[in-house]
Specification:
Helix content: 40-55%
CATH topology: Spore Coat Polysaccharide Biosynthesis Protein SpsA, Chain A
CATH class: Alpha Beta
CATH superfamily: Spore Coat Polysaccharide Biosynthesis Protein SpsA, Chain A
Shape: globular
Distance between the termini: 41 Å
Radius of gyration: 17 Å
Strand content: 15-25%
Oligomer: single chain
Number of domains: 1
Order of helices and strands: EHEHEHEEHEHEHHEHHH
Number of helices: 10
Number of strands: 8
Strand order of the largest sheet: 3-2-1-4-7-6-8-5
Mean pLDDT: 89
Largest sheet: 8 strands, mixed
């Protein structure tokens, strides 16, 4: 079984369509939502959709922080495969079946190809560049749908509680334990961060930060001098 773990915080308007879509995905899974202290209508939207999952949905609370929330979900997960899925990311209907197929081949984890909803030329270019980077490095950002065997996740010490690139650090540690793959299916992501913070800025920030991290710069340094600007 696959345990889907999704951190949420003030996601009113996003969590309901996420749940409606996910309930149509094929495969044996449980969904663990970990709330970091939402103050809007997020939790009401979750409760309104709970019955549709027939006991497969659990709602937990944890201190605010994406790494903290995802680690909390992983601690209680029943599945032997963990899929960390952002609330504004939509996987395709056969994605879980493809994950199980790859794990059955002996890989320890991986992610998908990434594309944006309603993408203009620049966002399409950003996705293409990001997918090329992943194909060369097997280092995924969180919106690529990172999945790992649960025993591997526990072996490498879970997500590091850092403000930036916790997903990249996880992949770096995981690659020391086995093979990561990029599944040939798209995960579709909302461009909301790019639209609110600037498409060019975020594309440069994320890819520069990933490059510098690969060659040895620590995430806290990169957050201070690149991301937090």
């Amino acid at each position: 079984m696959i345990s889907i773990i999704t951190p949420i915080l003030n996601e009113e308007g996003y969590v309901k369509p996420f749940l409606i879509h996910l309930n149509k995905v094929k495969g044996d899974f449980e969904l663990i939502l970990v709330d970091g202290g939402s103050k809007d209508g997020t939790l009401n939207e979750v409760e309104n959709c709970r019955n549709e999952f027939q006991g497969k949905l659990r709602l937990l609370s944890a201190p605010r922080g994406r790494a903290i929330q995802m680690n909390k979900g992983a601690q209680v997960a029943h599945g032997d495969i963990l899929l960390f899925l952002h609330v504004d990311c939509f996987i395709q209907k056969d994605s879980l079946e493809l994950i199980e197929k790859e794990i059955g081949k002996g890989v320890i984890g991986g992610g998908f190809r990434q594309a944006f909803f309603d993408a203009d030329f620049f966002l399409k270019f950003s996705s293409a560049f990001g997918n090329l980077r992943v194909s060369l490095t097997r280092t995924f950002f969180g919106d690529y749908g990172i999945f790992l065997r649960k025993d591997t996740f526990e072996k490498i010490g879970c997500y590091e509680n850092i403000p930036f690139l916790e997903d990249v650090e996880l992949c770096k540690k995981a690659k020391k334990c086995g093979k990561l793959v990029q599944i040939d299916r798209y995960i579709f992501t909302s461009p909301r961060r790019y639209l609110s913070h600037g498409r060019i800025k975020l594309t440069i920030v994320f890819n520069l930060a990933c490059l510098f991290n690969i060659v040895g710069f620590r995430p806290r340094f990169l957050y201070r001098y690149i991301a937090d600007k």
